[in-house]
Design brief:
The chain has about 400 residues and is mainly alpha-helical. The chain folds into 2 domains: about 140 residues, no CATH class; about 210 residues, Rossmann fold, CATH 3.40.50. The chain is about 45% helix and about 10% strand. The protein has 18 helices and 8 strands. A 3-stranded parallel beta sheet has the order 1-2-3, sandwiched between helices. Strands 6-7-8 form a 3-stranded antiparallel beta sheet, with no helix packed on it. Strand 1, helix 3 and strand 2 form a beta-alpha-beta unit. Helix 3 crosses helix 12 and helix 14 packs antiparallel against helix 15. The protein is globular. About 40% of the residues are buried.
Amino acid sequence: MNKVKYCTNCVYPTSSAVPLAFDDKGVCSGCRTSQEKKNINWDERKKKFEKLIEEYRNKNGTGYDLIIPVSGGKDSYFQVHLMKKVYGLNPLLVTYNGNNYTPTGMENLLNMRNVFGVDHVFFTANVNVLKILNRLGVQILGDMQWHYASGIYTYPIRVAVETKTPLMLWGEHGHMDLGGMHSYNDFVEFTYRYRHEHVIRGYEWTDFLKRAPEFGEKLTKQQLIPWMYPSDKEIAGIGVRGIYTANYFKWDANIHGPLMIKKYGFKVPKEPFERTYRKMSNLDDMHENGVHDYLKFIKFGYGRATDHACKDIRSGIMTRDQAIKIVKKMDSIKPKDTYRWLKYVGWTEKKFDQIADTFRDPRVWWIKDGQWWKDNLWGKPSSYGKVRLDPKQQKKYQA
């Protein structure tokens, strides 16, 4: 197996969940793409955006100008601020509720639709089905939030078709922002292919329906309607088009957050997360920065502190040495919200740990003396807990 290496500019490993390429200087594609922002004429892009949205403005006042999928976070606030306050558009906000909002996150969401005075569709699926999809997600692909990612990138599109609202405004393209999948000069737009292959990693509702009995779960087709993507015919009939705000406005969460706090009363929780130093990110799901991200560490050997540190290194507000200290302290923590999630789905910690171990990347992890080991960003390998695999499963990890 190839030994994991780290970007010489940020702290991403070659085992990153978001695909990365490394140049001959050891700098990752995410850093290279981020550097493009310095040479972009943002005033010119703003004009392009203004011309684009005028094509979609509802001239007769009988419909919405666009749809904005929102979580109620700082970036959602920023997008609604642009559309409603700066450009005077009438957006329809759409939220897919994963049923794990933090108290502060829910407060921000309710405040957002009030301070902006907009219509808002807040959708919650059958909670019993959500629990089943949580369990199946971990067992099938090591991710309890498959339903969440799929819902975010499916339900708003369903609403766009139903309301005959073609334009959709997303924030940033995640794989471009983190991994440099595209150039800012591509003006990449949302596609079903990106959703299918990368956001939900090739799994559709049909896979969960088919495999549910394999894990002792029961699902029906009718229960999975929220995750059924509209047909090509429906999409083409409306002309649904998804654009990214970050292609037209310089995107920096460290600027959005304070601005939205000042202008609209966006709130930050008093209690920090355990696995990242940022306090204003992912408030729509208490497990996003917690047990969900802990699974990422188990699988790929890094976590949310790495993600956030890489963003801040690229923004120029953190050095790589500072980031290494944060990653060393936070990436491996097993968070307290793990136990809330286990109670939610009815699992024991032992079962969770046994299943999680089966998803470890052999490029990252090896077994020595019954313990999991991996190389680290700071150079010295460390052990990270007891092995819970049977002897047959352990073979590919032997040092």
